[in-house]
Amino acid sequence: MTEKPSSPPPTVQEVLERIEGEWDALQKVLSKLDSKQMHTAGEEGWSTKDELAHLAAWARGLAALVRKERRYPPMGLPEDAAPNTVGIERMNQMIYKQNRDLPLEEVLAELQAAHQDAYAAVADLSDEDLLRPYDDFQPQDRRPDGHTPVLWRIAGNTYGHYAEYRETIEKLWSKE
Question: Which SUPFAM superfamilies is this protein grouped with (predicted)?
Fold first, then answer.
């Protein structure tokens, strides 16, 4: 998350502006890529298409999280999949395996829909909700860090995630 502990908490409107700003920046980078670039694997073994499917899954999970729904099934994961039980890396590998053979057009459409779903879910929150703990939103998925504000999950699964992967994609294709 980009906020400093001493900074005042952002409002939902500010969070939505960050989400849209990073989404727009990601879309700008993607608009410069051709199909071959979207399908070519980088150093980590994932293609840009795979990374976009990953972003879509986590955005879907975020939307479910803030709506107090089970967050893992919308991500295409088993209901009992959770970072504190199966681990983030294994979850990410499961998402990768589930989506790697999907056509690019389907991945792009799902990413768009997942982004819109996450945005709408966050828009329904109050400013006070941003500071409520994760465990308030996911009581069935209690975790050691469940006391942290849900804002951290929002940032990590939307604007922070978009920025991270935008930078990865830019780095991969800036070498050409």
Answer: DinB/YfiT-like putative metalloenzymes (SSF109854)
